[in-house]
Here is the input.
Amino acid sequence: MTDLGLRPELSAFADDVAVWRDVHAAAKPNALIDAHPYLGPGFQMTAKTPEAAEKLHGLFMFNYAALASLGLSAAALSGLRYALPRLVEGVASQLFLDDREAILGDYFAYAEEEFTLEVGG
Here is the structure.
């Protein structure tokens, strides 16, 4: 699916999603390819404008619409081997970055001794 406006759950922000024609001026334009969403390396949606980025934060597109951005990775069983690690890394990275202050704060504050050795006896 390349026309996000056809999906009720996506139509509210369909005009905010960058498509290939917004990002790349092809020497030989192709209306079908140019209408595909322009996705990031982890299958995340990218925004046409900085203002739209917040609306799209946390939205990933792992389906046939990823074809123009990431090849057959999400559109064919043979591509899943390569696509799933990219998707997992994209989602996990975003989850970590969203809460990095709290996560790193807890990590650096951890001061409980895990292993002790009693010498002598």
Helices lie at 8-11, 20-23, 31-34, 50-56, 67-70, 77-98, 100-109. The chain has a mean pLDDT of 91. The chain is about 45% helix and 0% strand. The radius of gyration is 21 Å.
